[in-house]
Amino acid sequence: MKKVDFEDYKIRLIDSLNYIEEKKIIEILNIFTNKIKRKKNIFVCGNGGSAAIANHYVCDYLKFLRQHTNLRPKVISLSSNIETITAISNDFSYDQVFKYQAESLFEKNDIIIVISSSGNSKNIKEVVKYSKKKGVKVIGFSGFDGGYLKKNSDISIHIDEKNYGISEDSHHILMHVILQYLIQRQKK
After folding, report:
1. What is the spatial distance between Cα 132 and Cα 130, in angstroms, rounded to a whole number?
2. CB of 111 within 8 A of CB of 128?
């Protein structure tokens, strides 16, 4: 990995965000608003640091968004239940941890937010394939070259950066940006 100092990191993080088209953020915002108002589920998943971001969606959107608006989002992380993840992983395969849950939980017109720096993890590919088959819209947040996730998301937010920290930080920042937009639009 290339050596990074604080100034370089800040510049690269800002640069990674500068390439994001605001119209894609607005499109996601409109989808979220529509799904929340129609009482549809918003699923989210990821591995490692992306799993932490997925779980942070639940915290901020379920609690903070509801606290500051009249919206009542149903946000569910497929990355949060370690008992379920290890059981599926042990009895079947880690490749199936998200898809297996989706097979039981997805309902018509739900959406899924998939967060993956590489975009190529097998469990990410499996849940994206299943989502497409079921007609569940996929919003993908990827890094590096974007991989499978970038190519197969209905809406792709790609951070063209080969550094996990910058990729994950950008995804985390965008999660907060979308939340701030939702709050501004729906203020109590």
Report:
1. 5
2. no
CB atoms within 10 A of CB 181: 18
Q: What is the pTM of this model?
A: 0.96
What are the structural domain ranges in the chain? Answer: 6-186
In DSSP terms, which residues pair with 41 in a beta bridge? 74
Helix (H) or strand (E) holding 45: strand 41-46
Q: For 37-64, write each residue's pLDDT tens digit.
A: 999 999 999 999 999 999 999 999 999 9
Q: What is the CATH number of domain 6-186?
A: 3.40.50.10490
Residue 188 has pLDDT above 70, yes or no: no
Contact 53, 175 (CB under 8 A): yes
Does residue 2 have a pLDDT over 80?
A: no
Greatest CA separation found in the chain?
A: 47
Question: How many Å apart are CA 63 and CA 159, to the nearest integer?
Answer: 27
